[in-house]
Amino acid sequence: MKKIIALICFFAGIHTAFAQTPIERFSEIVKRSEYSFVNKGGAFDSSSIIQLLQIAQQLKNDSLLAISYNWIGSFLAFNKGDNITALEYYFKALPLADKVNDKRRISSLYFDIGLIYFILEDNEKAGENIRKGGENLPERSSPMFDFMLVQYQRNMSQYYLYAGQPDSALHYSQAALETSHRIKSTSFEQGALYLSAECYAQLGDREIAAIYFKKAYVLCDSIMLTSSKLPFFAAYTGFLLSGHKTNEAYQEARKVFDLAAADNNDNMKLAADSLLKQVFDSMHNVDSAYYYLKMESKVAASIFSRNNINRVQSLAFNEQLRQIEDKAQLAETAQQRKENIQYVLIALGIITLLILYLLLSRSFITNTRLIEFFGIIGLLIVFEFLNLLLHPFLETVTHHTPVLMLLALVCIAALLVPLHHKLEKWATHKLVEKNKKIRLAAAKKTIAQLGSEVDK
pTM for the complete prediction? Predict the structure, then answer.
């Protein structure tokens, strides 16, 4: 019986998988991964990443490609410690997210780029990218607003800590703690707690710092992604060392070392070697301290090599050039649209004046077909004017989807055509009345002329 039930469940699962559309399958993978990330600080496996990329490429969807590249970059950075390739994917995703004006994705990419710069020990570049992410937060009404806001608050707190400004850092860490409670995120709550602890430690209040570190420590086992635990262990080990609790500091540093060895992550290896070097220094164990110093130098040489630094600078420079070119192109497009609108208005004005002249002129009889012809031209010009005027708004609302753009234009045309018919009917009626008056006036004039000839 159990085998039959298992078989039914298996086929039901297959049916569900095949019944899903590619977009639904893509959304399900992302939602599942984001839920894991928010609640447990987890990451998803490489097979899920490959599925996202395959679906995005199959659908040739810029928005989905931007999401895929974002997740690929995060996987490479935080699961594998491959900072440079991660940056390449982030910078590859940015123009795609810009193209569809996806604020949630743009802010996510800038925050992740900022985290890479933290790892590369370039605090100013990290802060620059985090601020850009903050400038591109989604609307407050968006369900993703708090999710992106808490990342901005956490990252800004980290930036000010590294800059030696604990008061500003504490402001952001406390705000991140409040936001993490709103979204019920264990991982962000843990991050906000240890950042607050670091702030109090820098401010010299070790008692409150210890309380926050203990609260963060309780949540540490709930965090799935080992690289997410790294900042906490690094901060806590430093705190213990500064309090001369060497044995406890050694135990925490060993945890980082074991996690780094298990994940084969260069970023974590560098942190572990650095922490163990500091611990053995404080123990006055010169041989062990020297050993871990050499290990730290070896890993650091790999991460901070001149070749890697040049690649990072090249990527950042290329992205800067892209943004400048995009701004110039947008300005040129806006200017061209403005000029086109002016030309259309001039043409519409000429047609309107011509129709009014034909309607109001008392000097000659006008054919109604002429009014119909100019009416159609006027309708086309009005439609083109509305198309030019509303095009940027429609692009934003429809996210550049051709079918939706076409549907919106059809709706506009559906509103214009009945109005055109009414105006055409009114104009034709006026024209007929005018023609009657002209003919009547001409007839009266002719009768008057004939009467004067008879009198003569």
Answer: 0.67
